[in-house]
Design brief:
This is Anti-sigma-V factor RsiV. It contains seven helices and nine strands. The protein has 295 residues and is α+β, with helices and mostly antiparallel strands. It has three domains: 76 residues, no CATH class; 113 residues, Heat Shock Protein 90, CATH 3.30.565; 96 residues, Actin, Chain A, domain 4 (Alpha-Beta Complex). Helix 1 packs antiparallel against helix 2, helix 2 packs antiparallel against helix 3 and helix 3 packs across helix 4. The relative contact order is 0.08.
Length: 295
C-alpha cells in the first residue's frame, strides 16, 4: 500500500490544477487510516484488514481522485457505469384520421451527449419513418374513398444497460392486406459503435447453427400444437428460415440470442411475427470474444 500512497501524493503535487485544502485533508486522512505492515509481521493479510484497506482504496479512487486529477476524472467519465444513460424521446408525431384512413407515426430520437454513433441511428429512423409516411399519403391518394388504409409506427427500448442499448421500431401497415415488421438498432456503448448481427460473429458456421436450431424449435412447436404452421420442411414452401449478417436480433436478459421474423417470412400471416430464442451455450463459440458474455 505504501507505493500507492506515494503515488497519490505525487499525483496531487504534479497536477496542474488547484486542489482545495479540504480535498487534500480528506486524502491524507484516508491514507493515514490504511493498515500499516511492519517488517516483523507476517506477509499474509488477514481478511478484515484487507477488506478495510480495499474499502478505503475504493473511496479514494471513486470519490476523491476525480476531484483532484483532470486526467483521472476524464477517464472516469468514459466508464459506462458512471451516468452513461441513453434517453429516447418522441420528437415528432404524424397523425391523420378520416372515416376510412388512419395514420399514427411516432418518430423517436436517441440522445446521449457523448455518443457520435447515435447520429447514424437517428438518421436511419428518420429515413424509415419518412418512407412510411410518404407511402401512406401515396396510398391515400390512390385509394381515396374506395378502400381502407392505416399505418402505425411505434417504438420501445428493449435494452439499456451500462454497456448495451437496443431500440425496437414496430411498423404496421394495412392497405388491402396488412403487414407488420420491425427494425432493431443496437449500440455497443463500450466502443460507441452501431452493431449489426454480422459484427458479433467470428465464425461463418454461426448462421447455419442458428438456422438449424430455429428449425428444430419450429418442428417441436408444430408437433405440440397442430394449429401452428411454420414453413420448414414444407411441401409447398420448403425451408424458409434464412439468417444473414443483417438479420434482426436482440439479447434477452440471460444473454440468449432472440431472432425475430417479420410477418409472412417463415409462416402464414395469422402466425404474426414469430421469434425464437437461441441459447447462448449453442452459439458462444461462434461469437467474437467481446460478445461471448453479454449479460
Amino acid at each position: 500500500m505504501k507505493k500507492f500512497d506515494t503515488y497519490l501524493r505525487h499525483k496531487i503535487s504534479k497536477e496542474q490544477r488547484e486542489v482545495s485544502n479540504l480535498v487534500k485533508d480528506k486524502i491524507e486522512e484516508t491514507l493515514q487510516t490504511l493498515p500499516q505492515t511492519t517488517p516483523n509481521e507476517k506477509k499474509s493479510l488477514h481478511l478484515p484488514r484487507f477488506a478495510f484497506a480495499a474499502g478505503c482504496l475504493v473511496f479514494v479512487m471513486v470519490f476523491l481522485l476525480p476531484n483532484v486529477s483532470v486526467v483521472y476524472a476524464d477517464t472516469m467519465e468514459k466508464v459506462p457505469f458512471i451516468g452513461d444513460i441513453i434517453h429516447v424521446v418522441t420528437i415528432r408525431n404524424y397523425f391523420y384520421s378520416d372515416d376510412k384512413h388512419e395514420m399514427d407515426i411516432k418518430v423517436p430520437k436517441v440522445e446521449h451527449e457523448n455518443s457520435s454513433a447515435l447520429d447514424s441511428i437517428n438518421e436511419e429512423i428518420t429515413e424509415l419513418t419518412d418512407t412510411v409516411l410518404k407511402r401512406f399519403y401515396a396510398d391515400l391518394e390512390q385509394i381515396k374513398d374506395k378502400g381502407h388504409s392505416s399505418v402505425y409506427v411505434d417504438y420501445n427500448v428493449v435494452t439499456n444497460t451500462d454497456f448495451w442499448f437496443t431500440l425496437k421500431i414496430q411498423v404496421v401497415e394495412a392497405a388491402g392486406s396488412g403487414n407488420t415488421y420491425y427494425e432493431y438498432y443496437h449500440l455497443d456503448k463500450r466502443a460507441d459503435k452501431i452493431i449489426k448481427l454480422g459484427d458479433i460473429v467470428e465464425k461463418e458456421a454461426f448462421y447455419e447453427v442458428v438456422e438449424k436450431d430455429i428449425e428444430k424449435q419450429m418442428l417441436q412447436k408444430m408437433k405440440e400444437d397442430k394449429n401452428l404452421v411454420y414453413w420448414v420442411k414444407d411441401a409447398t414452401f420448403g425451408d424458409c428460415v434464412s439468417i444473414d449478417s443483417k438479420h434482426n436480433f436482440y439479447w434477452d436478459k440471460e444473454g440468449n440470442l432472440v431472432v425475430p421474423f417479420d410477418k409472412y417470412k417463415v409462416s402464414p400471416g395469422y402466425m404474426g411475427t414469430p421469434e425464437f430464442c437461441v441459447k447462448k451455450d449453442i452459439i458462444k463459440k461462434y461469437l467474437k470474444d467481446e460478445f461471448k458474455d453479454m449479460f
